[in-house]
Amino acid sequence: AEQGGKLAGREVEYFTVDDESDPSKATENANKLIKRDKVDVLIGTVHSGVQMGIQRVVRDSGTLCLIPNAGVHAATRALCAPNVFRTSFTNSQPTLALGEAMVKRGHKKAVWITWKYAAGDEAFEGFKESYTKAGGTIVKELGLPFPQVEFQALLTEIASLKPDAVACFFAGGGAAKFIRDYAAAGLKGRIPLYGSGFLTEGVLEAAGPAADGII
Questions:
Q1: For residues 43 and 49, what is the distance between their CA atoms, to the nearest angstrom?
Q2: What radius of gyration, in Å, describes the C-alpha atoms of the chain?
Q3: Torsion-angle region of residue 5: left (phi > 0), alpha (psi -120 to 50) or beta?
Q4: What is the distance between the alpha carbons of residues 175 and 210, in angstroms, rounded to a whole number?
Q5: 3-class SS at 17?
Q6: What is the pLDDT of residues 98-141, one digit of tens each?
Q7: Are the C-beta atoms of 196 and 94 separated by less than 8 Å?
Q8: How many angstroms separate the CA atoms of 46 and 72, rounded?
Q9: CB-based burial label for 109 (10 Å; 0-12, 13-18, 19+)
């Protein structure tokens, strides 16, 4: 819109499809855009599972693909392709920056908590690499199935473990509830809470004062 509907002076025609965050529909949707609509560039998506379906199609077709969000490692590792470009991040990059910073603040023993799914596992990979390299010890790795939000038992375990800090990967509504539950469990102010930007991005209003002090 800023360029008057043009890129490099060329008129641009857009086709949009709702991926419904449903990996089972990804291949069909990508094929429609490429084979029926004859798109030159496919831009998407947010959901890593959906991206893997798109990835298979664009690798076979050679269609230029831009990934603006989905952080799944395989897209630019095991299944990388010369026509696929990521403009965002891989799931381990934000948490890779977290470990050393926590150790520098004196947090030598940490608990990690996340949802047990691809994004959570890959986020842990980055944190584990940097935190242990900097001299930190991960006391316990805690997880629950995605998208469950029953955190109470895990928060009780964190309280009993008494780590120097907690590092996590949560996002969206689940992140807001985790933040509120963390405070309600009496951990706020006692055990510092760290996370990548997803923990607070877009959820501060829902999390309320419980988010104060999160790094």
A1: 15
A2: 20
A3: left
A4: 11
A5: coil
A6: 999 999 999 999 999 999 988 899 999 999 999 999 999 999 99
A7: yes
A8: 10
A9: middle
- Whether the CB-CB separation of 167 and 194 falls below 8 Å is answered with yes
The two tokens of residue 1 are: 């819109």
Token digits for 4? 């008057």
183, containing H or E segment: helix 172-184
Long-range contacts at 75-82 (CB < 8 A, ≥ 24 apart): 75/48, 75/51, 79/52, 79/55, 81/55
- In angstroms, the CA 120 to CA 122 distance is 5
Alpha helix (H) residue ranges in 62-117: 93-96, 98-104
Secondary structure (DSSP) of 120-143: HHHHHHHHHHHHHHTT-EEEEEEE
Residue-wise pLDDT for 52-91, tens only, equals 999 999 999 999 999 999 999 999 999 999 999 999 999 9
Q: Which amino acid is at 199?
A: L
Range 113-147 burial, b when 16+ CB lie within 10 A, else e? bbbeebbbbbbbbbbbebbeeeebebbeebbbeee
Residue 147 identity: P
> CA 106, 104, 187, 121 torsion: positive or negative?
negative
**Residue the block writes with tokens 């933040």:** 179
Q: Which one-letter amino acid corresponds to residue 196?
A: S
In sequence order, the β-bridge partners of residue 168 are 113, 195
Measured from the Cβ of residue 206, the count of other Cβ atoms closer than 10 Å reads 15
